[in-house]
From TrEMBL:
Record key words, sorted: ATP-binding, Cell shape, Cell wall biogenesis/degradation, Cytoplasm, Ligase, Nucleotide-binding, Peptidoglycan synthesis
The family this protein is said to belong to: Belongs to the D-alanine--D-alanine ligase family.
Enzyme Commission number(s) of this protein: 6.3.2.4
Main location, first listed in the record: cytoplasm
Organism of derivation: Flagellimonas yonaguniensis
Span of the signal peptide: none
Protein name as annotated: D-alanine--D-alanine ligase
Phylogenetic classification of the source organism: Bacteria, Pseudomonadati, Bacteroidota, Flavobacteriia, Flavobacteriales
Highest taxon above the source species: Bacteria
Pathway the protein takes part in: Cell wall biogenesis; peptidoglycan biosynthesis
Length: 324
């Protein structure tokens, strides 16, 4: 008997439209011999099922079900394709945990932890995971630009603490530009993190659970045409993404070990994609994505393809592992 799979997409953040693209790709490649696939769009105003004719049907939030022609449909599993809140920060995960519905991403606490850059890095530092020097700032606090520069130096990165796709991120070269960068970051979140600039090769490493085993995918080297890997570089062709990365055997071994160590130490499951910058042979962690992009051009699918895993197999495995 085929399983009913809800593919949740959209969300409340600036990444809404990117999530819709990811969700539609999942919908396209799910094996219809095994699954009945339903696109569920999550917005602040309403949750709805989008049928094959693009007609909208409301979702009953009390039990996460839909009704079509008087038939009430419940879901065996939820495929999470929401980037940002509420799909990557633990809110949807907690909701499904309460309802007892399996879902493909990590559990609610781990999602909340990894989505919060400051908490993530603070948690991993005692384990010896290298990362940039950082300075924290909350909305409403006074801004001491001299203290910021003294701690992290210039250039530096000003980032929204809980956002993705490089929304709210600026690279600052001069102290007088800090104010505008901080204001930009606060437009996405009321917490920000300011980090020292790490001058080295940037790589992205996918770690997934596949066939019941933690699997590290080939690393992707990121070369941005812009000043850093910003939104334009990520989504508008202003970068080169080279898989596998052109790094030494030692660097490859070190980053694979670090990515797997983080995945296991934090108790993650499903898909993750971790970003690192090498200083010498040592990978320094930038962040972790627990619902990474899933379009044909996205980094995780690129890495899976090099590893010999098709999109059909990649998406199927997520459901199999969630149901396990």
């Amino acid at each position: 008997m085929k399983k009913n799979i809800a593919i949740i997409m959209g969300g409340y953040s600036s990444e809404h439209h990117i999530s819709i693209k990811s969700g539609n790709v999942v919908h396209k490649y799910l094996d219809r011999k095994k699954y009945n696939a339903y696109r569920i769009v999550i917005t602040k105003d309403r949750w709805f099922y989008l049928d094959e004719d693009n007609q909208e049907h409301s979702v009953d939030k009390s039990d996460f079900s839909i009704t079509i022609d008087t038939e009430k449909i419940h879901f065996d599993c939820v495929f999470n394709a929401i980037h940002g809140t509420p799909g990557e920060d633990g809110l949807m995960q907690a909701y499904f945990e309460l309802l007892g519905i399996p879902q493909t991403s990590c559990n609610h606490y781990e999602a909340a932890l990894t989505f919060n850059k400051r908490d993530l890095l603070s948690t991993l530092k005692p384990y010896g995971v290298p990362c940039a020097t950082s300075y924290y700032l909350n909305k409403g606090q006074s801004v001491d630009e001299d203290a910021i520069v003294d701690k992290v130096g210039l250039p530096c990165f000003v980032k929204a603490n809980r956002a993705g796709s490089s929304y709210g991120v600026s690279k600052v070269h001069k102290k007088e530009d800090l104010g505008d960068a901080i204001e930009n970051a606060f437009s996405e979140d009321n917490q920000i993190i300011i980090e020292s600039f790490l001058d080295g090769t940037e790589v992205s490493v996918g770690v997934i659970t596949f066939n019941n085993e933690v699997t590290v995918l080939p690393a992707t080297e990121i070369i941005s045409e812009n000043d850093f890997f910003d939104f334009e570089a990520k989504y508008m062709g202003k970068s080169q993404e080279i898989t596998p990365a052109r790094i030494s055997e030692k660097q490859e071994s070190n980053v694979r070990q670090s990515a797997e160590f983080i995945y296991r130490t934090l108790g993650l499951k499903g898909y993750t994609r971790s970003e690192f910058i090498f200083i010498g042979d040592v990978p320094h962690l930038l962040e972790i994505n627990t619902t990474p992009g899933l379009t044909e051009e996205s980094l995780l699918p690129q890495q899976a393809k090099i590893a010999g895993i098709s999109l059909e197999a990649l998406f199927d495995s997520a459901i199999v592992e969630a149901l396990r």
